[in-house]
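User: Can you predict the 3D structure for this chain?
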Amino acid sequence: MLTIRLFRVGRRNQPFFKIVVADKRNSSTRGRFVEEVGIYNPLSKQRNLKGDRVKYWMSVGAKPSPTVHNMLITDGIVTGSKIHKHKKPKKADKTETPTPPAQQTPQPASTASPTPAEPPKM
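Assistant: Here is the predicted structure, written as structure tokens:
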């Protein structure tokens, strides 16, 4: 299965990405990809996508990663809604009824007096 994803080629603290079509089973860091369809520089926010090639690969069956999908929508190459990349934490349902606290039975008071504590031995 083919996927359209980011391929990092920048140096340390200077990220730069190629947008490539690659087999999903291949590693995204090895450099084995089918075709380069664009570039992305996150420091300067520069993007350059080949829209016709992206549309071709999507028609063949390639699926874009969530980040690339959002880029395609922003650039107007693909129509649709953006994909939320980060998952929101689950909130507890407020419709659940709270469980009642455990019933405590009163303990009968003992009639015997408590035993006196022994003095510490030195």
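The domain at 2-75 is CATH 3.30.1320.10 (S16 Ribosomal Protein; Chain: A;). The CA atoms of residues 45 and 111 lie 82 Å apart.
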